[in-house]
Write a structure and sequence with these properties.
The chain contains four helices and four strands, in the order βαββαβαα. It is of the alpha+beta class. Strands 1-4-2-3 form a four-stranded antiparallel beta sheet, with helices on both faces. The relative contact order is 0.26.
């Protein structure tokens, strides 16, 4: 079987009520990238002002307060995957005065694992993602401690 060079890709929508994104998530993103667990494929911020106006900001359009936080992720952010259609879709359910960071992440940690499965004659038949909040509730309900 052929090997793979790309891991599974997730699209995360991170909501920030009150348009209050300040960059605090960047160190955690940086750690994931530096440790080779993920590659940030694209990142875009979608917002709806209090008056209902919808807009978006790509990484290159970040102001001077936020742009330095992303500086050492340069080369990790491919960009160009998200477009105006995505902005419209995300903004559809976004209340005024809120924003969403749309983050496209490749799970690079999975590449060697999937290749090992293929080398063993297997294949990934399907995959599903359980949101962290749901997993937390389910695991707390189990007596595994």
């Amino acid at each position: 079987m052929d090997t793979v060079d790309v891991g599974p890709v997730d699209i995360l929508l991170l909501r920030f009520p009150g348009n209050q994104f300040k960059g605090e998530i960047v160190p955690a993103m940086r750690d994931l990238v530096v440790n080779g667990l993920v590659r940030i494929v694209d990142l875009m911020f979608v917002y709806r002002d209090a008056d209902g106006t919808v807009g978006s900001i790509e990484l290159a359009g970040l102001g001077p307060d936020l742009q330095p936080a992303f500086a050492d992720l340069d080369g990790q952010l491919g960009g160009g995957l998200l477009d105006a259609e995505d902005v419209d879709e995300v903004a559809e359910g976004l209340p005024p005065g809120n924003s969403v960071a749309v983050l496209v992440v490749e799970n690079t940690w999975a590449i060697p694992f999937v290749n090992a499965v293929r080398a063993a004659g297997g294949e990934v038949a399907d995959q599903a993602r359980i949101p962290a909040e749901t997993a937390d509730r389910a695991l707390r309900g189990l007596d595994i401690g």
